[in-house]
Amino acid sequence: MITLEPPASSGNSSATRSVEEVKQVAEAKQPARILIVEDEYLIALEIEHRLRDAGFDVTGIAVTADEAISMAELGRPDLAIMDIRLAGHKDGVQAAIELFTKLGIRSVFASAHADAKTRDRGSAASPIAWLQKPYTAEALIKLIKQHLG
């Protein structure tokens, strides 16, 4: 195991930390990384603004399922805020399933389309939750904080 040693003059052996411990401390202080998948521009900007104000790191805003997958592969977010109806030929359920099965990224579905059939399709993505539009930014932030601890 590699350790980081304090200067010899300090004499403080409790200050010795492994590289793994240093990485864990650094990771614990980093804000949660969130991908927004929303094709309504003003809604996406509002969500981004509110999440950043709450201390989260927004890795990007995707408007299509394919764009969401590409952005997630590069940015490795901790979770995605996923609308159901998106621009392009794939919907948010398909994108969320792909994010979960390929990358292990779970989603919060935030959509006006949360009927039983859609929820049933979405269960394959192991969603964190469903938020019915219109929802408040406070409700979204509270949900994210509860999930991420």
Note down, in words, how this protein is organized:
The protein has 149 residues and is α/β, with parallel strands linked by helices. It has two domains: 1-30, no CATH class; 32-148, Rossmann fold. The chain has helices at 19-29, 41-53, 65-75, 92-103, 116-122, 137-148; strands at 3-4, 17-18, 33-37, 57-62, 79-82, 106-111, 129-132. A five-stranded parallel β-sheet has the order 4-3-5-6-7, sandwiched between helices. Strands 1-2 form a two-stranded antiparallel sheet. The protein is globular.
Biggest beta sheet summary: 5 strands, parallel
When the domains are counted, the total is 2
| Overall shape | globular
> What's the arrangement of strands in the largest beta sheet?
4-3-5-6-7
**Distance between the ends:** 30 Å
Helix content: 40-55%
Tell me the structural class. alpha/beta
* Spatial extent as radius of gyration: 19 Å
- The helix/strand series, from N terminus to C terminus, equals EEHEHEHEHEHEH
Q: Tally the helices.
A: 6
CATH class category of the largest domain: Alpha Beta
Strand content: 15-25%
| Average pLDDT reading | 86
CATH topology of the largest domain: Rossmann fold
Low-confidence stretches: 1-15
CATH architectural designation of the largest domain: 3-Layer(aba) Sandwich
* DSSP, total strands: 7
- The CATH homologous superfamily name of the largest domain equals Response regulator
